[in-house]
Amino acid sequence: MLKTAQPLLKVENLSIGFSQYFRGTQKRVIQPISNLQVDIEAGEIVAVLGASGSGKSLLAHAILGILPTNAICSGSIIYRGEELTEKRKAGLRGREISFIPQSVNYLDPLMPMGRQVQIGLDKQSAQEKQQRLFAHYGLKESDGKLYPHELSGGMLRRVLFATSVREGVKLVIADEPTPGIHPQALAEILKQLRQFAREGAGVMLITHDIMSAVKIADRVAVINDGQTIEVSQVSAFSGTGEQLKTDYARRLWRALPQNGFTYRELGWEA
Ligand SMILES: Nc1ncnc2c1ncn2[C@@H]1O[C@H](COP(=O)(O)OP(=O)(O)OP(=O)(O)O)[C@@H](O)[C@H]1O
Ligand code: NI
């Protein structure tokens, strides 16, 4: 891949904390993310791999500008050469920067599915495009009139995917898009992410599934306790992991069932 001087997205020294009350009145700050780094080139898929609670969703939400209001955030997020301010995030979100959230709760419970997929689409052709997306994701035209509670979990995930397909999308953030999904649907989703990249978008695939990461990513960023442990080319995840830079990543790789160890040794509950 051609290296450009400036990556599409560069997250540097990102720290996120929350101020919390405990014992009623005392305040303390918890720091789920500290000094996290990751960057993505246009046309590249970077997997962000980390155990549950390691800070993956917070990273996604920081890039998108949808952190809870009590979050204390510092560091820099540079997108296309410029600081991604909260105002810029709001303007790009759902358009140039698209998001496939971890939870189907991100869908509006009070809005029919068809309208949710039309958000961010060019008004004149929105309906036609939405219908094409529905067909592409195996949803029926009549499903467009249904509300989230009337659809199955699998269908909702497909709707979430449809909301991320936008003309001119340059960055796709997919937060665990594959939980509990059967293998064929998983292959389909990974193929779609690859397609985004082929069309020139940068893709961040957040996952705790090392196999999905290795199957699809160009590079893998391993995070633990809100810190970047290692960023490596995907080719380093092979053999005995001798090309990996850190012991942590090597243990993670070797813990795969086919590599002989178990996740439990890492205390990693996938
Ligand atoms: N609003 C919040 N207030 C306080 N702590 C929070 C808040 N949101 C997240 N955290 C804490 O930050 C840490 C990271 O959370 P995050 O959701 O980013 O993890 P994750 O890597 O996405 O995990 P999972 O794989 O389970 O989705 C967790 O310990 C979580 O409890
Ligand atoms: Ni998460």
UniProtKB/TrEMBL annotation:
Subcellular localization, as worded in the UniProt entry: Cell membrane
Q: Which residues cross the membrane?
A: none
**InterPro entries from the xrefs?**
AAA+_ATPase, ABC_Ni/Peptide_Import, ABC_transporter-like_ATP-bd, ABC_transporter-like_CS, P-loop_NTPase
E.C. numbers? 7.2.2.11
Which reaction(s) does the protein catalyse, per the Swiss-Prot or TrEMBL entry? Ni(2+)(out) + ATP + H2O = Ni(2+)(in) + ADP + phosphate + H(+)
**One Pfam family hit:** ABC_tran
- GO MF terms held by the record: ABC-type nickel transporter activity; ATP binding; ATP hydrolysis activity
Predominantly, its location class is membrane
Q: Which domain of life is it from?
A: Bacteria
UniProt KW keywords: ATP-binding, Cell membrane, Ion transport, Membrane, Nickel, Nickel transport, Nucleotide-binding, Translocase, Transport
Carries keyword Cell membrane?
A: yes
Enumerate the spans annotated as ABC transporter domain.
9-250
What is the protein's membrane topology class? Peripheral membrane protein
GO cellular component terms given for this protein = plasma membrane
Concerning its family, UniProt says: Belongs to the ABC transporter superfamily.
Subunit structure, as described in the record? The complex is composed of two ATP-binding proteins (NikD and NikE), two transmembrane proteins (NikB and NikC) and a solute-binding protein (NikA).
Give the protein name, as stated in the record: Nickel import system ATP-binding protein NikD
